[in-house]
Amino acid sequence: MPRPVLLTVDDDPEVLRAIERDLRRKYASNFRVLRAESGAAALDLVRELKVRNNVVALFLIDQRMPGVSGVEFLAQAIQHYPDAKRVLLTAYADTDAAIAAINEAGINHYLLKPWHPPEENLYPVLDELLEDWESSIPPQFEGIRVLGNRWSPASHNIKDFLARNHVPYQWLDVETGATDKEVREVVALLDEAETRHLPLVIFPDGLRLQQPTIAELAEHAGLKTRATQTFYDLAIVGGGPAGLAAAVYGASEGLRTVMVEREAPGGQAGMSSRIENYLGFPSGLTGADLARRAVVQARRFGVEILSAEATEVRLDGSYRVLKLADGAELSCHALLVATGVQWRKLDAPGVERLTGAGIYYGAAMTEAMSTRDEDVYVVGGANSAGQAAMYFSKYARRVVMLVRGSSLGASMSKYLIDQLQATPNIHIEFNSSVVEAHGDNHLEAISVHCSVTNEVNKVTANSLFIMIGAAPNTDWLGKIVERDERGFILSGPLLMRDGKRPKGWTLDRDPALLETNVPGIFVVGDVRHGSVKRVASGVGEGSVAISFVHQYLSKVV
Ligand SMILES: Cc1cc2nc3c(=O)[nH]c(=O)nc-3n(C[C@H](O)[C@H](O)[C@H](O)COP(=O)(O)OP(=O)(O)OC[C@H]3O[C@@H](n4cnc5c(N)ncnc54)[C@H](O)[C@@H]3O)c2cc1C
User: Fold this and answer.
1) Calpha distance 140→154 (Å, rounded)
2) In angstroms, rounded to a whole number, what is the distance separating the alpha carbons of residues 478 and 473?
3) In whole angstroms, what is the distance from residue 495 CA to residue 268 CA?
4) Which of 165, 224, 268 to mutate to test the pocket of ligand 1 (most atoms within 8 A of CB)?
5) Residue 18 · residue 111 · CB < 8 Å
6) Closest ligand 1 atom, CA of 311?
7) What values do phi and psi take at 134, rounded to 5?
8) What's the pLDDT tens digit per position in 9-56?
9) I want to staple 105 with a disulfide (CB 3.0 to 4.6 A). Which of 74, 195, 238, 542 is the partner?
10) Atom 27 of ligand 1: nearest residue by CA position
11) Residue 381 phi/psi, 5° resolution?
12) Of all atoms in ligand 1, which is nearest to the CA of residue 241?
């Protein structure tokens, strides 16, 4: 496999030579550094690379060039390489054009000329972008292989779990055996019995797991499923932004911290194709990037991250004991609940039966490649649905958003509405809801009701992504903490009734702001009653909660 390409373009030969030299010095061992002296020549080169099936990791382009400008070049080049990172080289005077290009051509970064010394002004930026690129590209090496069927919910769950945990894998769709030589070869090497019970997960060491559970998969994929200690100062359940922030702050302040996550660190945010409103990332970042960075940060401070599901909590004196799905227990002084929310189910005939087989809750980015040149339907009118529509529009022929209300203004951010309106293959149908899903073993059509005309239309559809509101993940807590009528956990002043502390409260102070009715059990993020459902607020709550944990520990330990 040839090394991925770094392509740099500048019409000034001296600048081009300098940047090429700097790129080679740092990246030549892992990447091929190619150059072009004009936007037009670079476009020819990009087409040639595509024909040869070569991969481009990064474009580093001068903005001000005669003929084809940097932004014009990128707008065309990304049609061929949508995953390549894009950096614009600009003069100080062109900064405004570069900022405008963040939206226009999806620029990841702009660098001011001159960039010397590269160790300070060039390499740190490129290192980070190339690291992101490497973690998001489809794997091109020998690793875990998943053989299954596109329409099988079990196959979808395996792919989704591996992708969200950043475990690289290769997907082999058994249905494509007629056209895909690699699939044919793999199938030919397997026993017939193995191919009858898909999905099959093949590990590089030769181990094969047939229809594995998520716990089995986690264990064999190298994720940590068992705690190394039986006792921790702080146990966090849920690894979304709120749980991750608490983990980073807790461990960095010396608490022995464990974080239990049943799916993948990042939570809902990890499923976001582009978070554009998180402070400090002017070009936005994918939820997967955010999660990956946070996990590295948490690990650096010594947080133990378990791939496991918490199923129960009990109190044992001042200890809080967490029971996990495999029956193991771990105890702690302070417990922080950060279990977030999950999608509300769409209640219509056929939907449950076809979930995982063309119908998915959330953006299910692992399915994007399969929707190439198809029509994709997205149900929902909030930011998450808007982001998903933008994401799928890069792959699908047409994305249809089905919105129950008559406008997007009340539920979606303005920047996203502008992006949707400017994307020609996105179509929004207002006053519309799905009333039935049709298909034998996978989704083939949906019936859509229009509340204005009262008509129901049946349309062909292979993919339906549902994002319609959220329900809190709190059933596992039994009756131990107080919740509102919808299941969101109450905290702090809301627990005080007529000036009285909650029943059974044992401390000589009121519950702290993010504390539940049980001393030492805290709650943060989307699962908390009254929380603002945003990444930044979850991160804020997770960080702030640690000061209440310290306050609690100072009295009980
Ligand atoms: C597609 C999408 C796009 C979004 N885009 C944006 C955006 O652009 N900007 C923005 O500010 N916000 C955005 N949001 C909202 C934002 O992601 C959420 O507000 C945020 O993730 C909430 O964080 P959290 O940590 O409270 O919970 P979550 O992110 O919901 O994480 C909770 C975690 O707990 C785990 N869990 C649940 N129960 C258990 C259990 N029993 N045992 C172990 N683990 C458990 C779950 O698997 C999950 O990983 C988006 C949401 C979605 C879905």
Assistant:
1) 24
2) 11
3) 27
4) 268
5) no
6) 41
7) -60, -35
8) 999 999 999 999 999 999 999 999 999 999 999 999 998 887 666 789
9) 74
10) 340
11) -130, 15
12) 25
* Rounded-to-integer distance, Cα 381 and Cα 401, Å: 8
Token pair of 515, please?
């504390």
List the residue whose alpha carbon is closest to atom 20 of ligand 1.
535
Residue 276 alpha carbon, nearest atom of ligand 1: 8
Q: How far is residue 485 from each of residues 162, 177, 472, 522, 553, measured CA to CA in Å?
A: 35, 51, 11, 19, 31
* Burial tier of 300 (Cβ tally within 10 Å: 0-12, 13-18, 19+): exposed
Q: Which single residue is written with the structure tokens 């000329």?
A: 113
User: Ligand 1 mean position to 156 CA, how many Å?
Assistant: 20
Residue 341 CA: which ligand 1 atom is closest?
A: 30
Task: Of 364, 358, 347, 357, give the one whose Cα is nearest residue 263.
Answer: 364
Whether the pTM exceeds 0.85: the reply is: no
Element (H, E) at 355: none
> 290, 331, 294, 295: which is closest to 310 by C-alpha?
331
Q: Give the integer Cα–Cα distance in Å for 537 and 519.
A: 23
Between the CA of 219 and the centroid of ligand 1 the distance, in Å, is 23
Distance from the alpha carbon of residue 239 to the mean position of ligand 1, in angstroms: 8
On whether the CB atoms of residues 389 and 401 are closer than 8 A, the answer is yes
pLDDT confidence tier of residue 382, bands split at 50, 70 and 90 = very high
Q: Whose CA is nearest to atom 38 of ligand 1?
A: 339
Q: Which amino acid is at 543?
A: S
Burial class (CB in 10 A: 0-12, 13-18, 19+), 37: middle
Return d(Cα 100, Cα 92) in angstroms, integer.
14
The most distant pair of C-alpha atoms in the chain lies apart, rounded to whole Å, by 77
- Ligand 1: which of 164, 419, 535, 544 to mutate, most ligand atoms within 8 Å of CB? 535
Q: What is the 3-state secondary structure (H, E, C) of 303-333?
A: CEEEECCEEEEEEECCEEEEEECCCCEEEEE
Tokens of 451: 């509340």
Return the ligand 1 atom nearest residue 535 CA. Answer: 11
Query: What dihedral angle (degrees, nearest 10) is formed by the CA atoms of 351, 354, 358, 364?
Result: 70
Q: From ligand 1's centre to the CA of 241, what distance in Å?
A: 7
Q: Which two tokens stand for residue 270?
A: 């990890």
Question: What 3-state class would DSSP assign to 353?
Answer: helix
State the DSSP H helix or E strand holding residue 200, giving kind and residue range, or none if neither: strand 200-202
- Which of the four pLDDT bands, split at 50, 70 and 90, describes residue 299? very high
Q: On the CB side of 135, how many CA atoms lie within 13 Å of its CA?
A: 19
Nearest CA to ligand 1 atom 7: 275
Residues with CB under 6 A from ligand 1: 237-243, 260-263, 267-269, 271-272, 275, 277, 309-310, 338-341, 362-363, 383-384, 387, 473, 476, 525-526, 533-536, 538
How much is the pLDDT for 142? 55
Which residues, in sequence order, are CB contacts of 46 under 8 Å at separation 6+? 7, 56, 76, 77, 80, 81
Site to probe by mutation for ligand 1, drawn from 272, 367, 420 as the one with most ligand atoms within 8 Å of Cβ, is 272
Supply 325's token pair.
């799905």
- Separation of alpha carbons 230 and 38, rounded Å: 62
